[in-house]
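R.M. (postdoc): so does anyone remember the format we settled on? I'll just put the structure tokens first.
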């Protein structure tokens, strides 16, 4: 008898769940399902309600108990069924902050990246990931870091204060310059710089900053490729800078960039007519006359349309008048 009881105690998995004891009738499937759902709810409550756990972790964080706070956030996340819910995103953001305080920058990057996968414009996640990348000093990830800063400046959710924005601008400049100095591929530099300049124009309409970005890329092309802008991204950078100069009515720089563009695309009549316009505005009438005459005579190998032909004729007429007038003055 004693041996039988001992076997029952040691082998609970073989004993059916009953209403009252070992000799009672086993529970029906319906009753068993209800019992299991209750057990599941009790198990889910072991980590506490997610919101209260978050508040408990926040209180520990405020007290400077960062490791304990991180443990609370981690337990809450482990008990969560859907980590894409808002409460879980808040827990991930807070754990990233705790990781930053503890010097676990890889952990901060991982948590921030998980948040950004669901909420790509989250200010806190963008800032913390950029700061963590800066702290690690991993130059290979500097591109991600300065892009996060750019997103924060232009696409963020708008909660950034002036002090934080100053820090973001400083961090963006630092990471961008470090990344560009690390990258030796001119096409890669031009591609990223082009995107940066487009952001400046699109979101802030600060043409001078866009030109400063493009100057950096164009200087790289001049240095590394002897001014050959024929490849896709170098040419796009030059083209965008030319458009900025045109918008600023900076005709001196405009005609210089048009000269570089024509070296890469010598047969483009529309560019040559634009250069005529820039040369006229700079009062370089003899050069403008020669450019217009070369369009009429098709010296560069591309036949102008009728409209382009007439426009070139108008330049020739005006420039001939100005050149003659200039000659009379010199006499």
């Amino acid at each position: 008898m004693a041996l039988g009881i001992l076997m029952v105690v040691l082998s609970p998995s073989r004993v059916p769940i009953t209403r009252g004891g070992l000799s009672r009738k086993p529970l029906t499937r319906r009753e068993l399902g209800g019992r299991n759902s209750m057990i599941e709810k009790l198990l889910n409550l072991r980590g506490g309600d997610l919101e209260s756990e978050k508040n408990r972790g926040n209180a520990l964080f405020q007290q400077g108990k960062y490791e304990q706070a991180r443990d609370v956030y981690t337990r809450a996340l482990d008990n969560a069924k859907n980590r894409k819910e808002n409460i879980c995103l808040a827990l991930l953001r807070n754990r990233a902050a705790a990781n930053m305080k503890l010097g676990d920058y890889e952990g901060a990057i991982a948590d921030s990246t998980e948040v950004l996968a669901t909420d790509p414009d989250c200010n806190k996640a963008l800032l913390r990931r950029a700061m963590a990348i800066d702290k690690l000093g991993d130059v290979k990830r500097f591109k991600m870091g300065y892009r996060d800063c750019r997103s924060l400046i232009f696409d963020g959710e708008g909660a950034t204060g002036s002090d934080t924005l100053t820090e973001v601008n400083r961090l963006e400049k630092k990471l961008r310059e470090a990344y560009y100095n690390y990258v030796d591929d001119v096409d890669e530099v031009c591609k990223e710089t082009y995107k940066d300049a487009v952001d400046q124009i699109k979101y802030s309409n600060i043409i001078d900053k866009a030109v400063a970005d493009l100057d950096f890329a164009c200087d790289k092309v001049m240095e590394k490729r002897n001014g050959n802008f024929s490849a896709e991204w170098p040419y796009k950078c030059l083209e965008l800078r030319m458009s900025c100069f045109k918008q600023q009515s900076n005709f001196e720089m405009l005609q210089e960039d048009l000269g570089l563009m024509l070296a890469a695309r010598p047969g483009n009549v529309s560019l040559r007519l634009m250069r005529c316009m820039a040369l006229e505005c700079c009062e370089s009438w003899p050069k403008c006359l020669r450019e217009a005459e070369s369009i009429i005579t098709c010296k560069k190998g591309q036949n102008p349309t009728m409209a382009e032909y007439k426009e070139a004729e108008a330049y020739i007429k005006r420039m001939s008048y100005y050149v003659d007038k200039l000659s009379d003055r010199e006499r």
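R.M.: ...and that's the designed sequence above, right after the tokens. Also worth knowing: The radius of gyration is 34 Å. Residues 15 and 22 are 8 Å apart (CA to CA).
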